[in-house]
Amino acid sequence: MSSTFGTLFRVTTFGESHCKGVGVVVDGCPPAMTLIEADIQPQLSRRRPGQSDISTPRSEADQVTIYSGTEFGKTLGTPIMLLVHNRDQRPQDYGEMSRIPRPSHADYTYQMKYGIRASSGGGRSSARETIGRVAAGAIAEKWLKENFGVEIVAWVSQVGDIAAPAVDMGLVSRAEVDRHIIRCPHADFAARMQERVEEVLAAKDSTGGIVSCVCRNVPVGLGEPVFDKLEARLAQAMLSLPATKGFDIGSGFAGISLRGSEHNDPFIQKDQRLGTSSNHSGGVQGGISNAEDIYFRVAFKPVATIGLAQETVDFEGKPTTLEAKGRHDPCVVPRAVPIVESMAALVLMDLALRQAVRRPG
Amino acid sequence: MSSTFGTLFRVTTFGESHCKGVGVVVDGCPPAMTLIEADIQPQLSRRRPGQSDISTPRSEADQVTIYSGTEFGKTLGTPIMLLVHNRDQRPQDYGEMSRIPRPSHADYTYQMKYGIRASSGGGRSSARETIGRVAAGAIAEKWLKENFGVEIVAWVSQVGDIAAPAVDMGLVSRAEVDRHIIRCPHADFAARMQERVEEVLAAKDSTGGIVSCVCRNVPVGLGEPVFDKLEARLAQAMLSLPATKGFDIGSGFAGISLRGSEHNDPFIQKDQRLGTSSNHSGGVQGGISNAEDIYFRVAFKPVATIGLAQETVDFEGKPTTLEAKGRHDPCVVPRAVPIVESMAALVLMDLALRQAVRRPG
Amino acid sequence: MSSTFGTLFRVTTFGESHCKGVGVVVDGCPPAMTLIEADIQPQLSRRRPGQSDISTPRSEADQVTIYSGTEFGKTLGTPIMLLVHNRDQRPQDYGEMSRIPRPSHADYTYQMKYGIRASSGGGRSSARETIGRVAAGAIAEKWLKENFGVEIVAWVSQVGDIAAPAVDMGLVSRAEVDRHIIRCPHADFAARMQERVEEVLAAKDSTGGIVSCVCRNVPVGLGEPVFDKLEARLAQAMLSLPATKGFDIGSGFAGISLRGSEHNDPFIQKDQRLGTSSNHSGGVQGGISNAEDIYFRVAFKPVATIGLAQETVDFEGKPTTLEAKGRHDPCVVPRAVPIVESMAALVLMDLALRQAVRRPG
Amino acid sequence: MSSTFGTLFRVTTFGESHCKGVGVVVDGCPPAMTLIEADIQPQLSRRRPGQSDISTPRSEADQVTIYSGTEFGKTLGTPIMLLVHNRDQRPQDYGEMSRIPRPSHADYTYQMKYGIRASSGGGRSSARETIGRVAAGAIAEKWLKENFGVEIVAWVSQVGDIAAPAVDMGLVSRAEVDRHIIRCPHADFAARMQERVEEVLAAKDSTGGIVSCVCRNVPVGLGEPVFDKLEARLAQAMLSLPATKGFDIGSGFAGISLRGSEHNDPFIQKDQRLGTSSNHSGGVQGGISNAEDIYFRVAFKPVATIGLAQETVDFEGKPTTLEAKGRHDPCVVPRAVPIVESMAALVLMDLALRQAVRRPG
Lengths: 361, 361, 361, 361
Fold this sequence. Notes:
Strand order of the largest sheet of chain A: 1-2-3-7-4
Largest sheet of chain A: 5 strands, antiparallel
Shape of chain A: globular
Helix content of chain A: 25-40%
Strand content of chain A: 15-25%
Radius of gyration of chain A: 21 Å
Oligomer: homotetramer
Structural class of chain A: alpha+beta
């Protein structure tokens, strides 16, 4: 297990899908910052299940409580423990489910790695594990906003093969994103994506998608070469999320086909600083932020748990057919939007503190 | 700076392009393994410049010396220091280059982050920084091969918009890859890629590409949820390489368009274990290896340093034109092949040691 | 803040004296070990206040709850969160106390470091912070006992200038130690120590003491040179406890006066292994356990909070007199006994897992 | 192995007694600081063997070379590799020495831990391992001096049972300390200690001693509760040195006998800050520096390698007699003086950078 992320802003998450609670300890949060539950709850509420017809109906309020690290609404600089109780605790022997590893799920690998696994719901591979990340991310975001005006906005840019046109990354806002339950800011494409999700849901199947994200007003200088370059930490953060299969930043995979003369971002003088006239770099050069917008994409595979019958084998190797019971998200990307934002915030926050060390004495 | 990678197999690299030497300290290498310079040199030689007409002619033998951690050709379990002397040491004031930050290079961000930067050659953002990684990776690879039969093979799968057809991932070998200087195992496409690189070289321009990689015979159980999932560490490792812009694993970005019922990998009984009949997962489920082939892609942008004139501004913000002097690799992907293999080896080695803790007593 | 301890058995504590709760996340606990609250509670109960007339009467049941990481009474290999609710939550403005930093307490340094501090009770410098350590230590102890038969016993060997005679380190047991509330296994000296504590209590003063500790049946090979030598980690662990001022191991400070020929521990053949006929080394040679008993001492200063009037200055530098209100432990060593044991367990557990990596494949 | 120390000022040492070289990589050194070999050499020269009749005559110039991380005499903020070549490389089969583990030496535990060990000279348990620490410490000291005026002075305060009287900790200087080869600043006691060392040398025996150390002008606020409290890190640092058995800070073990009312350090107004009128705390309260002098003691056991015949057993358990060949330091404390200073500097430097994060924006 490796449930801690960050060097100076250190986040340690805990909790399975069906234990008493899930949450996080945040160690290294700067002191004397105002912080109450209401600063954290909104992103948790954007993440929670049951927000619409196309997400899992598991009923969880996901109400967060601050257990330590603040007093009279201010951080003390000490570890902040945030806890969300699991209302839906059902550790029980699932019969069939425990005999048959779900294809492309974590049942088999957890069993082989640990010699034991949570009886149901995926344990730590469940999406509930991300609650601690989102709670911690909300603190990071607040600090980044207050200290640098950082804005982080993610949205759904693709569902299945339906890819929405580019958005204006300088302007896209959470309000726009949340206007549609699919969380694509482009109304027409949002409707088409929604249809697609309803279609796969009806077919007891699932689909994948892409979450895109932009981080604005990030100060120059964040990123620690060579192993903690900004894009390296973002990549780790995003690929540590359940169901992710890819990450690219700036021009990404598409930029390969350009020539250097097209791809290079010429410097120009901006207000108080040097900037670039294009931004194929995605706000990062040499692993360090250059104050331009940081933007990246995260690929999510189709959800593994589906109602359709699947031919597979049980743990003993005996052929069998599996039909997942109950209802599951047919597409995770709408709920992944605040999770991606949170992980981006955790990366930027940690790197901002690490760079703070270098401010002139 | 963050020049250490790994938890139990800890690699700390050092060295700029024009200092006395570059290298690495490897801490945590298992004891009593045979190790001499000849085990390390081959991958360094595959990485070094000047191997062909299409790579930078910088003349470096890149001969490695083991300074500590072994005796009579065996590892002691103590830190292994590996050093490559820089033959080409020219720290000097580069005139124009020091006044003008190269577009899409690290000159500007290093200067802003540290308030100082190496006068030439890119310092730690130079490709020479990867020498320590490759040297350490060779040790990891040797151990993985001896203990599990792990085979790691990378190759060039795309240059510019020329994408080679899929290779047989169960069979592709380094010998095949090295048959062409472009390091694409597909002869026809290798020729086309080669032509493309010569063309951009002639045009004083550059191009990007993709390195693909497969890791065979990786044991089940590697990967430490949640933040050190196997794909998360691979993503960090690859995005920490100079000039990388993207990473995907298994079905990756392409898998998004599939439905869950198509994408899921059904379990089947294989020799002594459960396996899967397809491998969209890329050998990883729930962040943990499942003993199937691990395969992934890394996107490299077009090289930033080009001979073509670029309109830009100097550090003072004054408009100017920059033409990079000397010759540079017009395309990094052929030399990136052993580097990608090495980073994969470092990730697998560290996770293998971390999993070793869990072997039954 | 640095609230995480350990490399593979990673313990992250949280909680102030007057917040909602205190506790710990244990990441890296081996899977499939039986674990319920009753395994953890006994050491917490030995640690809690109000056990006798000579400890602080703060009323806390200190009942622990396992929130995550186990199912059906077995560990899953995932993070275990242990929580103790604070019954006595009184974050309030303490008037005088908030204007006057208590001499030799953490009020002044916390204020200077963080620019803010918990209004009362010492925040993270409070003894309540050790609850998470003790809870985590109980898990470590259980695993060490089950896997190696490790026994860890600490006792009070000195109070003020009353130093008890040496105990038989091969035999001393917790039952013996707990026979006297002062936790000195030597009845006569326990009585004299008890008298001394009652005397300083009556005088509204305080006294220091020494806790000694022995760890039996520790396997050979634990300790990671050079910075995580066994004694180095023990020293860090013990000096991270509130009110500690010194640590020595084996012959310690007293061994200085011996000659090498007296101090060296000759090897002899023991049952299945080499052992030593004397044990001035304290079970550690070259930073690595040698399977002999590990024993060490920890010095605790007199408690800083006393009822006696003290001439000092307030935060503004204005001379004033401070008399601490309420009652406090006049001597911490009896309650420090299980805390010292717990920290020893955390050190040994982490090093045992780190050494497990090296077991022959 | 765990050869890395520090969180932001990260020091990774390498090298055995008889390999090609010993040294260190320093990652996280602040950029733009002037640094040349001459800044580092003096402490290495104070540490090296052969300085007097009472130290081992092993002939080593211990000349340091900076391999990376600086340019034109300034640090770049990138990893600094410092290398000292071993002149005296003799990895060879030592015959008797390899059959018989030296009592109280690391031969046996290294062999049991790693299943292999350096054939001679102690490998990583050799005093040569400390070269990297001293080289890195010199950089830390330079930065601490330039930024805060920190002064670190260590001296020999006890040899065998000869304990020198207290020195004036506000004034004691390295010049005074180095006036006597025994490195005790008190002339009479230096002479007596010298005599004692010559006596044990003549007797082919050895003796232990104490190194005391003071750190002046340390700013308030250094130390990271709870596990990286200043005294906890110092304790780890000191107990990670070869041959150390104890550490205490401030009043230490002696303070136990005082009452709280005597031991507490009352606050008084000093120039620009609050200070204390006494300093039993040793400059640390609640694990955080309070700007008073930090002082501590380190106990070194008598050297294990002695010429006198010792009855012991060989690796097979067969009784035998061992007489160490060659000459060895009969007492390590004079040469330990710069080593203790260096470790103190490494601890303070890392904590200073970690606190720098909290400076007001």
